[in-house]
Write a structure and sequence with these properties.
mainly beta, Jelly Rolls, eight-stranded antiparallel β-sheet, about 45% strand
Length: about 250
Amino acid sequence: MKMRFKFNRVSGFVLAGALCTAAGWSQAKDIPKHGPAVVLFDGKDLSQFDTFIPSTGLNSDPNHIFTVEQGVVHVSGKEMGYFITRQEYKNYYLRAEFKWGEGTFAPREGQARDSGILYNIQGPNKVWPRSVEFQINEGCTGDFWMTDGAALTGKDGVRVTGPDGKAQRIDRFNKGVWKNVVGYRDPTNEVEKPRGEWNVVELVNRDGHVWQYVNGKLANEGTDAFPSSGKILFQSEGAELYFRDIKLYPLL
């Protein structure tokens, strides 16, 4: 049975703001009003998620692709896969932090470190399910990818659809030349911090209108997302990285 939050609460925004301040982190300036946090990852376990690895299936991770270590999720990157929310979500503000590790692995060994947050997922688990992606990739974090039939209209008014089984991209704003080499940084408009430092990624998803922020800066915006709601996943895609402080806030 599908479960979905109904985000119709009109209280808690002041509390959420106070908690943000107390925790010592700030949010992008244009984030809309929202309710208290739904803590997806509390630093202890992945109880709010399922894991999926094509070679072993659902919730079977014998090679420890996803482990919780000292309050963070360590993604080894050694196999393709993801951890995915057990519930579907609609109309929310999502905030998470990531940083790159060292390793890169086949089939992306030596290439720009790659991961992502895929959202509005509906349908069966596979690599990769129908979704809109918040790309996390050295030199192009903030791009949109539409996967397996998903669609989005970019800021320029052009609608982009990922053909079945494939994906299509909308570049982030002011993106420079990109090279698919490990450690690459955008020479024109790099929004990531240097490797090894924590980055903040924020997503606002309201009725198919989506905004993606990287370290407080609006990186991309799109409208009429298809699908417009669903599950959310965090990728393992050939690169070692870490996630922490994964929280979702219902929009008011």
